Amino acid sequence: MVGAFSLALWFLNYMFAEQSVKFDELALGPETTSVYPHLGGNRIHCKDWEDRVECLAPLSSKPANKKFLWLGNSQLHSINQRKPNQYPASLYLTKNLAKVDISAITFSQPNASLLEHWLLFEAISSEIKIDVLVLAIVFDDMREGQIRQSISSASQSAKIKEVLNNSAFGRRILSKLQDTTELDDQPETLQTASENWITTKLENCCGWTSTREQARGRISTELYQFRNSVFGISANSQRRIIPSHYNQNTQALRAITERARQLKTKVIAYVAPLRSDVERPYIAEEYEGFKTMVEATLRDGGGHYYDLENLVPSKYWGLKDSTNISGEPEIDFMHFQGEGHKILADELFHILEECTR
Hints:
Blueprint: H1 2-18, H2 23-28, E1 32-34, E2 38-39, E3 42-43, E4 45-46, H3 52-60, E5 66-72, E6 78-80, H4 89-98, E7 102-108, H5 114-125, E8 132-137, H6 149-152, H7 158-164, H8 168-177, H9 190-206, H10 208-221, H11 223-231, H12 243-263, E9 266-271, H13 284-300, E10 304-307, E11 317-320, E12 330-336, H14 338-355
Parallel strand pairs: 4-7, 5-7, 5-8, 8-9, 9-10
Antiparallel strand pairs: 1-6, 2-3, 11-12
Helix pairs in contact: 1-9, 4-14, 5-12, 12-13
């Protein structure tokens, strides 16, 4: 097996050195398109802390308006089987909010964790007053244990460091970020152990630390496929929570609600739409426990909770690239088609009307 892994690593190193690729697109596959829309000449949907200026500047120019911030994962910027003139929900929602004098901005990253949402919220709130924060919460992303460099770079600001040092959770994460963006102590499962082994080999052969953010997309389509084939993993495979990551993200959600209360920011969190016409890749008890935790945390923090998992009808979901080396298309549980984005935007607009009266 080690020999096979070495061959896969050599192949990845060759691709990194020889090809110019759009890594975000590779992470999603050709069936799904990433779109970060503009409105009125202004960018209204950004990725992370490193491209924030382009998105926050228009909001700063309208001090009297209420400010709306939407944070989520690739579901927000990805359209499955995109057709002409189809756009993410962020564009439709921003247009509707503008009619009621609310300026809106959206940030999303692939596999975005609540830990990353927390840090990004803290960082953005240090630059502009946010009146309403909407969180798209995804069970899969509770398995994430990293803060990618394009978000953790926000912690280098003296202003943000001061904010983080005001809470025990903030101090803990800040201390870890000073050394590494990996927030794990030890691997807990065969899967995480294999991922850590691969990461170490990639660092030795390919300078993984400096290229990890881009390579994350590539690993989803090459090394990720190879690993899944070895362990028999597909899009339909049930995957258990990783306790340390889950607990860390749970703490991050609590930290978001506590900080939002201090800043007088209204929080609306929703469990993201999930394909429902096939068996879901989750352990049922774990998934239901996750939803109960989110609802309780929002209630205790004075926020609003909505379960939107069944919002998008089955006919608006599609397929994605294979997650293993078989090459066979698989069910996409996360990214829906253009009509699904319109449905999500309309539903959130109604929720915002209800919560901000």
